[in-house]
């Protein structure tokens, strides 16, 4: 870790990264277990209710490039506070207004908040922990895994206890208060991510990541892995209930999947630091994902529980590796911010389409076999792209 911080400051920064990142998934993953309930209550089609998870992902792509702009205009601290307030406020809104329009508005604004926070956290890690970025990414992904698991696993429990899906969706606003608290005590003053010298000052010309082939490969791979994550999180419960499972049991399958993911989210980045062969890891995770899809397709309840264990490996392992792509390829926090913003902009736009396509196909066919085929295509495409992305890249600055 960097030497500019005391031990107390370092711990506070790590807790802040965790407390902020835990807010980046519950508002999305909590929809999956309630998908059928919301659809039936509001008389929606599968495509309409799927927009509640697709729209945040679209926005996470469309607005990721706002992160560097907000850092320059109002600074890191104010940007974090503003985005956490938006996420928390819109999540609370779901408890008071359960109309479809209100759910759509909240989905859009929550997506914007997540979009800005993601690149800022990556750049924070690059700036504050330049020598241990790989390990600290584990804290970031661990927080996201915890948030995803809480939203996916406990929303159905809250619904069963209260009989109110608006309450079950809105309870996750409490996590925003935790994030705001830790930002307040660790990011004192209006912190800004460091800006590099201008080209005129150092004679260098910065090349936009949008003009670099490697950045585009990162973008496509990120889009495929994000698509697979949101498709699995959104549709595993409906697939399981379609096979005859109860809602609570199906949510348990998802909870097992994301629960194992939590632990692995913390472990894998540390392992990557010691065994940095990116290609081998990617091929291993993607193979496990294909095995899981095969087990899900059987409709056998026991095998579906086992499939959750296999699927937890790519869910946990792919995201931190894609976060490391820009960190490996860049020298400065500003460049990391720009590359991450580009990767997430295009990648999340891609990822917003796929769950919606699944919903449209299911509306037409009424058969989740097509859903599983789409899952498989995503993993096969990533296997092909792995040979182009390859190992750690030569850095640019």
Detail the poorly predicted runs. 195-203, 393-397
Shape: globular
- Average pLDDT for all residues: 85
| Radius of gyration, in angstroms, nearest whole number | 20 Å
Name the beta content range.
Answer: under 5%
SSE ordering: HHHHHHHHHHHHHHHH
Q: What's the β-strand tally?
A: 0
Largest beta-sheet details: none
Estimated structural class: mainly alpha
Whole-Å distance between the termini? 22 Å
Number of H/I helices: 16
**Helix amount:** over 70%
Can I get a quick summary?
With 397 residues, the chain is mainly alpha-helical.
Task: Describe the protein's architecture and organization.
The protein has helices at residues 7-21, 26-29, 35-41, 46-62, 66-96, 100-128, 133-162, 165-170, 174-186, 199-202, 213-242, 247-274, 278-296, 301-329, 333-365, 369-389. With 397 residues, it is an all-alpha fold. α1 packs antiparallel against α9 (174-186), α4 runs parallel beside α6 (100-128) and α4 (46-62) runs antiparallel to α15. The chain starts with 6 loop residues before the first helix and ends in an 8-residue tail after the last helix. This is MFS transporter. It is a multi-pass membrane protein.
